[in-house]
Amino acid sequence: MTVPTQQPTRPENEPGTEVTSAAPAESREVDIHDPRLTRFDLVREGARRDGVEIMLYEPRFEPGSRAERRVVRVIAMLFLLAGAAATAFMVAYIAWPWQYEAGADALSKFYTPVLGVTLAIALFCVGAGIVAWTKKLLPHEVSIEQRHDGPSESDDQTLMGATLGGALEESGLTRRPLLKGALALGLAPFAVVAAAPIVGGLIRDPHDSPHGLPLSPQDYTGFTPLLNNDQPVRLVREDGTPIRPADVSVAGQLTVFPGVPGGATNEFADSPTLLIHLREEDAELLRDNLYEMNDGSMVGNFVAYSKICTHAGCPPSLFEQQTNLLLCPCHQSQFLITDNARPVFGPAARSLPMLPLALDAEGYFVAASDYKVPVGPSFWEL
Ligand code: FES
């Protein structure tokens, strides 16, 4: 094996001094308690006793040189940038509007990209800073190691301590306060970022109502009278127009939304409802089958069911007039609308909730109350 034959040079933290070492160059053991030994002597002796021969050891730069200062500044800048990006991540995580807002100017749609970009910049800068440090600042060293087995002697432990101390000194942390400060400022916010997913849930309550109601968003839909000064909420089309019984033909159906601001948007994504005009005989059948909690929920031959599948949340709106079945296109669940929208086929295990209907003074459909049971997949509540 060919190896470089250059003798080890002094560590860079002792520039300009003559190398006076009590350690012999050859490989006989030295007294490690000899006060004349330098730290590097101990490092080299420790390495030698471990079967590692340091063949080449030279600093990258003249200590204190312009080139070294330039590299230190670049690395410090990377760490500070990482800290700034991590801080920006935290600020966005806490303060950026994250709940859905309609409209082209809504800031909420940038929430995830802002988190992703700031975290990516922080990670990249920390990685680049560490790589630049090891590549550009740590001394260049070539060593050959002889492998051996066995536990460490106490002398070896002393030498290992000296080796680790030497490594710390070589890293330049102790004599480069700019890097030390940049590292602290850069990594402190980074540590906070790592803790953000854990403590984030304690900062914001995901059950806070975005409408200022004393309820969790899972506990109401857009049909709650609480959103309408305790007055029943009208059923409206997507364009916000109210609906009279004469607007839906017999055996026809219409998708309706709560007549509150934003009622037809994702702000009330759990509120879409199917208003169905049953044939006389089918309405009779349903009246006979009504669950107790659904008593009084029909208006004439009209019934309204949640349009959110109780299996996984798809819209079960394929209405088979002849069989009175409502089909969900996702996993083929079928709901029998003449029997409280009970699932008769497929993976759904729960009936579609029925919306209590009424007519207001002007003859328009309103929700007599909110849904009496939670809409959507059961696991939403878990
Ligand atoms: S979501 Fe409707 S059957 Fe699966």
* Separation of the first and last Cα atoms: 65 Å
The secondary-structure class comes to alpha+beta
Whole-number radius of gyration?
37 Å
List ligands, each type once: FE2/S2 (inorganic) cluster
Q: Which range does the strand content fall in?
A: 5-15%
Amount of helix: 25-40%
Descriptive labels:
binds FE2/S2 (inorganic) cluster, four-stranded antiparallel sheet, Rieske Iron-sulfur Protein, alpha+beta
Question: What features would you describe in this structure?
Answer:
The protein is of the alpha+beta class. It folds into 2 domains: about 1-205, no CATH class; about 215-380, 3-layer Sandwich (Rieske Iron-sulfur Protein). Helix content is about 30%, strand content about 15%. The chain is built from 6 helices and 12 strands. The strands form 3 sheets. The chain has a 6-stranded antiparallel sheet, with no helix packed on it. Strand 11 (about 355-360) and strand 12 (about 365) form a beta hairpin. Helix 2 (about 65-95) runs antiparallel to helix 3 (about 110-135) and helix 2 (about 65-95) packs parallel to helix 5. The protein is elongated, with a radius of gyration of 37 Å. Residues about 1-25 have low confidence and may be disordered. FE2/S2 (inorganic) cluster binds near residues 312 and 316. Keywords: 2Fe-2S, Cell membrane, Disulfide bond, Electron transport, Iron, Iron-sulfur, Membrane, Metal-binding, Oxidoreductase, Respiratory chain, Transmembrane, Transmembrane helix, Transport. It is a multi-pass membrane protein. Belongs to the Rieske iron-sulfur protein family. This is Cytochrome bc1 complex Rieske iron-sulfur subunit. InterPro entries: QcrA_N, Rieske_2Fe-2S, Rieske_2Fe-2S_sf, Rieske_Fe-S_prot.
